[in-house]
Fold this sequence. Notes:
Number of strands: 9
Strand content: 5-15%
Strand order of the largest sheet: 1-5-4-3-2
Structural class: alpha+beta
Helix content: 40-55%
Distance between the termini: 25 Å
Oligomer: single chain
Largest sheet: 5 strands, antiparallel
CATH class of the domain at 4-97: Alpha Beta
Amino acid sequence: MSWNQIKCKHREVQLIGTLNGGQSFRWTYNQENDEWIGIFSKTVWKLRQKDDYLHYQVLGSLLNKSTKNKTKQVNNKVEVNENGLFTSLLKKYFRLEVDLGSYYKIWSESDELFKTAGQQFYGIRMLAQEPVENLFSFICSQNNHISRISSMVEKLCSNYGEEISTHEGTTYYAFPEVEKLCEPKVESQLRELGFGYRAKFIQKSAAQIVEWGGGEWFKSLQEMKYKDAKSELMKLHGIGPKVADCICLMSLHHLEALPVDTHVYQIATHYLPHLRGRKSVTDKMYAEIGDHFRKLYGDLAGWAHTVLFCADLKKFQQNGDDECVKPKKRRK
Length: 332
């Protein structure tokens, strides 16, 4: 199957830091081929990066059902014609309309720590995710580690999502519609699947979202001011300030949102030394940390801080390759 390509300067996109940095939990890395397979927009993607091009293949898509005149099936795989449907989706997902290099320059001039981090962690894109998947993935993220979060997200998809396609023995599923998660029986089912207390948060939040209008409700949050959207999100069961900020930042286009957890707090103490030694992050500290970085970095503060977050993660520590850092292989 041939590869499609999007012209994009090498330092404008770093797949490793972007796809393996804790934003999305549905990407896996094949180190042997230096390729990624992941799911978004009800589509299974294979990505790789060569020189100044982002290469992709579409391994299957449910979008074909409504766009048969725009795509054609060849050996159960999707070929993309000149309409650019999948190219447009990929550009939107990586926010390729943003000239990231110019922002890195501005942020580096404002902050020496960012300047150092940005040398290695260039091209960290803020993914434009779908709100439903983003919200429920981050409910799963509470008091959890990435491998277990990924496992929970896949359980949601395989049990409640629609099958997209099978590739090399692996079956891929779309993230479920919110209506599939709102039924009362979902809570007990998820508890049996190992979701613990998160099961209640998922089912009850889904029911609230459906009651409030589903997709239209999310659209209204995108049109609100950031702090108003955050307040509305926190009315959902199980959504606190940090998860609300993750959703604002990653899927509602409020790029000034800055999620603060204990890890981010440790980074913040480099800038706000008077906060050192605290046992927990209070509401007042949370607001102070967010406001500090918004003043330092501007309207895309959450994006800028994501670069620092990636640079500080243990799995991204320097391993002798100063051009980029390889993620660990995931166990199958």
